[in-house]
Amino acid sequence: MACNYQICTKENRNLFMPCELLSTEGYNKCDKRMVVGMWIIAFYLLGTVAGDEVCYPRLGCFSNDPPWSGIPGRLLTGLPESPEEMNISFSLYTRETGNNSQVISAINSSTIQNSHFSPHRRTSFIIHGFSSTGKKGWVVEMCLLLLEVENMNCIAVDWKEGAKGTYVCAVNNIRVLGAEVAYFIKTLQKLFRYSPREIHLIGHSLGAHTAGETGRRIRGIRRITGLDPAGPYFEGTPPEVRLDPTDANFVDVIHSNAAHFPATGFGMYNTTGHLDFYPNGGTLMPGCNDLLLEMKRTDFEALIADTTIFGSCHHSRSHEFYFKSILYPTGFIGYPCETYEDFKSGDCFPCPKQGCPMMGHHADRFPYKLKRVNQKYFLNTAAEPPFASWRQKVFIKLSGVKKMRGDINLIFHDTEGNTKEYEIASGVLSGDKVYTKYLDVEIDPKKTKKVEFLWNKTIFTLLWARMGAEAVNIIHGEDGRWSTFCGRGTVTYGVPQLLTPC
């Protein structure tokens, strides 16, 4: 069914008849001749619509009064659809179910009692966003991976029917979706005395704000992770409308497609959790090439308000980063900074004495995560999976050269056979100068097998010229630890020089 738009007046809310609804399928006029029985059917099938609110059994009423609409940045129309129209479902994955799932329902609580749900394990709810599904794809893959590392209950929330219309309609729908997830949690409390402290909500885009709506209704949820919370109609709005730090005991957020001038994105730029991570600055992700981001902001707002937006690579990176952070926790260290420019210049390097949090799955291990809200952390990632990188500051002192043109590089090798090469400097090279650069190395320092020095000449460099690395010092950003390597003699261009610990 199409998203319904309320146009009835408050004056007729007490009449025993269905209120007038406007949908993309046409008009259903209010008719005083309709019998009371039709009103009762409408109540249970569609909810009662009265004036500027709609009510659904079990979940309560939803108004379009401010701040839900009619405020700057949130000039929405319409009211949310019913759970039945959205076809909301919950699929349980456990180690007992393997790659399959069990459909469970709070309305029919026996399906939970007869399932493999265990009240003795923690539970994660995975909630997809606009124009997506919880029946396949990243949501299911996330559950299966979480089960590999922890014996838990993982519940994939599907609301595909409510997420596939216009974006505005989906924005309205997450209020009912959040109420439905909250009702499910209340059912777990009644059945098992299950504590919200055992629950982790993980939501992408509109799913992140759905988690926030759930947390607003159920206090004491252990953790909410917002994966690039949707920006349009949420950026700059009051806390009750969007995800905010009060929605759970701990709220961590990954911003991967923030609408930060001059770029246009699907996500929020402002902080909205206890720990807010901005990988690669939080707006444009390496390895992505979305033409949509080149549009003017006015064009984008018109498009997102009126049509279906397909997934953005930058927007999806947030859940891809979270997925890989489960396997590579130290490869996503966030550094406390005010801006991405400060991070790139090295002003926030290395980590302070209290350490740095790990973006993604292991963010809750950070001992100072609740010190205050809206803590900003920056990091860089690789352009390709597994996206992990380790920030280092490199110092190179050359040997065998007074002045020469060319470029100098370091090559890192790990125990698994992976190799990555990074340029340190190019141009006029001098033996009396120390060359410094911040690197985001895609080789785990704990798995580094060897480091090599390599230089390349320009067309103006003599063929018999030689150069070497006298000393290479590396500061590891995670803990400030130093590693020192030395080279023996010099090598000709294009020939790697093995560096050994001094």
TrEMBL record:
Keyword list (alphabetical) reads:
Calcium, Disulfide bond, Lipid degradation, Lipid metabolism, Metal-binding, Secreted
Q: Where is the Lipase domain?
A: 53-387
Active site: residue positions:
205 (nucleophile), 228 (charge relay system), 315 (charge relay system)
Known catalysed reaction(s)?
Answer: a triacylglycerol + H2O = a diacylglycerol + a fatty acid + H(+)
Compartments where located: Secreted
Q: Does the keyword RNA-binding apply?
A: no
EC number in record: 3.1.1.3
In this chain, Ca(2+) is annotated as bound at 242, 244, 247
Major localisation: secreted
Q: Which GO terms describe its molecular function?
A: lipoprotein lipase activity; metal ion binding
Enzyme class at the top of the EC tree = hydrolase
> Does Nucleotide-binding count among this protein's keywords?
no
Q: What's a GO cellular component annotated to this UniProt protein?
A: extracellular region
A biological process term (GO) from this entry: lipid catabolic process
Q: Which family does it belong to?
A: Belongs to the AB hydrolase superfamily. Lipase family.
Task: Please state what the protein is called.
Answer: Triacylglycerol lipase
Organism (species): Chrysolophus pictus
